[in-house]
Amino acid sequence: MLHPAGPAAEAIAGLWWVMLAGGAAILVFVLGLLAMAILRRPSAPPAAGRNGAALWHHGLGLGFPLVTLAALTVHGLVVGERLLPHEAEGLVTVRAEARQWAWTFGYPEAPGLATEDVLHIPAGRPVNVEITSRDVVHSFWVPRLAGKLDAVPGHVNVLRLQAAAPGTYAGQSAEFSGPGYKGHVFTVRAHDAAAWDRFLRGGSP
Amino acid sequence: MTARRRTALRLHRELARIWAPDPRLRGWLTTSNNNDIGRLFLAVATAFFVIGGLLAMLIRAQLATPGSAFMGPEAYDQVFTMHGTVMMFLFAIPFFEALSMLVLPGMLGTRDLAYPRLGAYGLWVYVFGGSAVIVAMLLGLAPDGGWFMYPPLTSAAFSPGIGADVWLLGITSIEVSAIATAVEVIVTVLRYRAAGMSLSRMPIFAWYILVVAVMILTAFPPMILGSLLLELERALDWPFFQVENGGDPLLWQHLFWLFGHPEVYIIFLPAAGMIATILPVMARTTLLGYGWVVAAAVSLGVLSFGLWVHHMFTTGIPHLGLAFFSAASTLVAVPTSVMIFAWIGTLRQGRVRMELPMLWIIGFFATFIIGGLTGVMIAIVPFNWQVHDTHFIVAHLHYVLIGGYVFPMIAAVYYFQPLLTGRFQVFRLGGVAFWLVVPAFHVTFLAVHLAGLLGQRRRTWTYDEGQGWEVLNLVASVSSFVMAIGFALVLLDVAINTFARARGPRNPWGAGTLEWAAPMPSPPYGFASIPIVGSRYPLLDDPRIDLKIARGEGYLADTSRSRRETLIVTTAQGAPAQVAVLPCNSVLPFLLAVVTSTAFLAPLVKAHAVSVLALVGVVAVALVWVWRLAPARMEGPVDAGHGAMLPLASETPDPPGWWGSLFLLLADGVHFGALLFGYAFLWTVAPNWPPPSFLRPDVAGPALALGGAGALALAPRLAVRAIGAGRGAGPAVGLAALAALALAGAAGSVMLERPDPAGHAHDATLWILAGHVAFHAGLVLIMLFYLALRLVAGKALRIGEARIVGLWADFTAATGLVALGAAWLPGVLA
Amino acid sequence: MTGILRIALPLTVWLAGFCAIYALQGLGCSRHWPEGLDRRATLIAAAALFVLVQTLILLAVLYRPSGFRFVQATATLLAGAALAAAVWTSLPVLTLEICG
To answer: Where are the transmembrane segments (chain A) (predicted)?
Structure first.
């Protein structure tokens, strides 16, 4: 996920770098306060009385986290909202069905067409993946393209993907599913427009 | 020798005789004293920590290199499932319970916990259940579906062996033990304190452990319900989690995390309580902002119940639903931060001394803050979508659990060691151990964080070369072994210093709370007399309060009644209110634990008849237990010292049994609530609903239920009146029994109408609802049977007894009506 | 015991309200939601009710004080916290997509 190759993964990676920087700053700040508290020279005047206590509680204990967290949560929700499978121009829908330990992918635009363990998508266009499972709970995850979404038997979950450029992206199931879990992986091939058309018509892309 | 010294010595001898455990081996099985039970508990929990640690080393050995041939997936799946299970259920919770058992009575200024025998029972159930799980693992029959056991992977179709049953039955039996201890802790904190110890004068740890105990009562029941449902699905094919017949696998995830998230705080808060206790003493000052810290602990306890869905951000729940939980998840950082800054402020106002406990607390800060920050990160929904189920999560949870729990607990062990053993550090391996553990911990889990960010999933038994994870995993494995050596040194250090002799003065740290006013190591009776306190830090007000206590200048210094007595106070102000008589040594708790564990574990070997027989044994032993505990005659008020004539607890309208029942019913009520939630969840969300048909009640069922519930609520009140007026309570007891039977009959009619619970989740749920009613009606019948026996034996009933049965009857009547109403409602509406 | 209840009540009500809003949202996206009932308006109304109840609790704590100073201070603090928590955790109903 540190090498994003699509808008969703990019947005999340951006979120990560912001949080890492903020988190590191907070860590240094708090540990600095701790060190100052511990190493305070005994000769220094004792900590200010009631006012000092109020600063610790209201200022640092309450105010500081409230402001940071509010900003972060709102930011996260805005990003999350943008990643949802909204209506979009040029939207393509594909189906993903998991089982122990393989994936079958279907393409409503080309009925009857199915691929095993390889998902074909057009590059540069938004793709909705309709995810479900035939047996136990699995999870559909292509780290460089987007976050993961579970394949739950009896439910269909929709994940929005987009690959910025044609290429091959590694995918893996990300919910433990028994002894074959390690090998429960798949590949996503993103094609340019011409190759995608060839694929839908049943030719080799 | 002065006269006062002689008084103290005489008092010590008398009390030591009254509170003495039985001699030799028998003593271990019959003791119920908090010092003995706590020590055993602590030793067993530590043993499980070692086992869990060995499993962790197996995991890191396997993951050190790609394509490792050390274990195959079958073995590895069992190892990581057991590592999680052992650490969470067999180590973390029992360990802090053990430590609380040891120090809580001292802190509160009382002589023992409220229900010593219940404590002993909890210990033995835990020992048997935990051992069964470990034995299964040694036989290669361990669960292998991950410690959160998601069905359908753990359903009979995909996990046909007994591994999953070992988990469901073994862990549930241990949860029963945790609930027993929680009830004991709550009632102790609320009622068993020193005279004058009002709520605002309680040691801060008492507040934390009170919050935690209430959380155990409210968090464990959903999990117990989930385990019951999954076990029923596995054994009898009742389809709660199978989609085809109206179940839904997401129901398990909700029930599990309704427990699982509060669980994290159940583990963290006792550690935080220890820090709030130890840190001010290490800084030679008192806690800054006591009231704020209490409020923060309470908020953290309640808020943590609003977070469970953040473990389910990737299950396809609508974004708005996730947003609620994301907001609540970031919210919990606020009370945590209030605590952290209160502690830093405390350090600032004092002068810190760098003893071992303080060192480990600094280790806590350096680690837990990072765990908290990554916790906020994964509460942010889109980021969670990426890192969920990767090693990033593994690293985060180890930062929180090891940094937030294990380090403070080590600090607590070092801090309380003089009190528990009466000895002082002679060898100093502790410092070396600290410098091995903490840096190695950070190297290990920073590497694991990074591996997760690079896409490494958790729970794969190995990984392929060329993904950029080799170096990180090798580094993590090597430093994890350094950390393990460090932990081994800590154990060795504590063991050596437990047995090496070096006596020292009382209250070596200069603490202000009462546990340091007891003799060291604490004798079975704890305090020679119940202390009288006038502030939060009685030892700072009066450093010689220990002598006053020893000379019998507190309450209950009179040993002439020759029995184990302690003081019960009013909940808010801590004014002396009653005198409790604690039970003598008995083998009954051990026996009850044997039959309870047999009932739980016999189904593992398909010995269902043995299980039923053991259940009968549970009832029989419980009856003998209660029968023997009941005092033979009324005594009236007794002299508690200081001119106070107080009633015996057993002769009041609210005896300890009433309080215990009240809190046990809280847990029972949450269990029932979780059941209703499950029913509503399936009705709303499960794909194959509605069922082929709903149940349409005729007139008889609801009439029976209404009549039964009404009479059941009325009869115990009549009994209380009759006892108060000195009349016979026989007719009321009879009426109550008839009422319970009527309610059970109504429940039975639901089952008869729907004879095939395996057909659809709806029918299976109706059986559970009806089963709840029938079970509680049965419980009330057993209690009524006991009252009837007492009547037949010609003993006068006490108001307290009747009120206890009344509590259970009220609960049965109320939840019975709701349960049966819920079963019938869809049919009436349809 | 009333002291303990005063301390425990405000946030317990928050928990109940929080779960109720979540349940309402779940119901809103389920097959049982009545045709024609506006989801967002219903959710906003429920959230407003939630905040109102939490405000009333705070007022009740302030105007019917406990005789015990410590209990009163802690209960006030927690009732305020519960009100803040109710507002904060209800905010998403204003803007986010409901069943997406």
So the answer is: 15-39, 60-78
Contact criterion met (CB below 8 Å) for A103 and A69: no
Amino acid code (one letter) for C24: L
Contact A152 B315 (CB under 8 A): yes
In this structure, are A162 and A123 located in the same domain? yes
User: For A106, phi and psi rounded to 5 degrees?
Assistant: -120, 160
The full set of domain ranges for chain B reads: 690-829
Tokens at A7, concatenated: 């808008």
Decide which of C31 and B442 is more confident: B442
Smallest Cα distance from A105 to chain C, Å:
23
| Residue B607 contacts residue B584 (beta carbons within 8 Å) | no
Chain-centre distance for alpha carbon B668: 14
Least confident of A61-70, A82-91, B196-205, B585-594: A61-70
Rounded to the nearest 5°, which phi and psi values hold at B261? -75, -50
The verdict on residue A87 lying in a domain is no
Using the beta-carbon criterion (under 8 Å), do B324 and C21 form an inter-chain contact? yes
Q: Residue A202: what are its φ and ψ, rounded to 5°? A: 95, 0
Residue A56 within any structural domain of the chain: yes
Question: End of a domain among A27, A48, A82?
Answer: A82
Inter-chain touch B320–C100, beta carbons under 8 Å:
yes
State the DSSP string of B162-194: SHHHHHHHHHHHHHHHHHHHHHHHHHHHHH---
Residue A204 backbone phi and psi in degrees, to 5: -80, 135
Round to whole Å and give the CA distance between B552 and A178.
64
What distance in Å separates residue B327's CA from the closest CA in chain C?
5
The CATH number of residue A144's host domain is 2.60.40.420
Question: How far apart, in whole angstroms, are the C-alpha atoms of residue A126 and residue A163?
Answer: 8
Q: Which residues pair with residue B568 across a beta bridge?
A: B578
Q: Are residues A161 and A114 in the same domain?
A: yes
* Claim to verify: residue A37 and residue A130 sit in the same structural domain: no
User: What count of CB pairs under 8 Å joins B to C?
Assistant: 104
For every residue of B190-225, DSSP letters joined together read: HH---BT--GGGS-HHHHHHHHHHHHHHHHHHHHHH
| Chain B closest-CA separation from residue A11 CA (Å) | 9
Q: Could you state, in order of their start, the residue ranges of all structural domains in chain C?
A: 2-94
* Cα–Cα distance for residue pair B251/B679, rounded to 1 Å: 10
Are both A76 and A107 inside the same structural domain? no
Do A108 and A70 share a structural domain? no
Question: Which of helix, strand or coil describes residue B568?
Answer: strand
- For residue A98, what are the β-bridge partners? A103, A133
Query: Which of A82, A100, A128 marks a domain boundary?
Result: A82
Per-residue exposure over B365-379, b if at least 16 CB sit within 10 Å of its own CB, e if not? bbbbbbbbbbbbbbb
Q: Do A76 and B369 touch (CB under 8 A)?
A: no
Tell me, yes or no, if B728 comes closer than 8 A to chain C by beta carbon: no
The pairing of beta strand A118-122 with beta strand A185-191:
parallel
Number of domains in chain A: 2
Nearest to C4 by CA among B208, B199, B203: B199
Contact B324 C71 (CB under 8 A): no
Instruction: Provide the 3-class DSSP secondary structure of residue B767.
Output: helix
Residue of A nearest to B317 (CA): A157
- Tokens found for residue B26: 């028998």
Best CA proximity match to B690, nearest among B606, B795, B779, B765: B765
User: Averaged in consecutive runs of 10 residues, what is the pLDDT profile of chain B (830 residues)?
Assistant: 84 94 90 94 96 97 93 94 96 96 96 96 96 95 93 93 93 92 97 96 97 97 96 95 95 96 95 97 93 95 93 93 92 90 91 92 95 93 95 97 97 92 70 95 97 94 92 96 96 86 79 92 92 95 92 93 95 95 95 96 92 97 92 89 94 95 97 97 93 91 95 96 91 96 96 94 97 97 95 89 96 98 91
Residue A205 lies in a domain: no
Residue A21, domain extent: 7-82
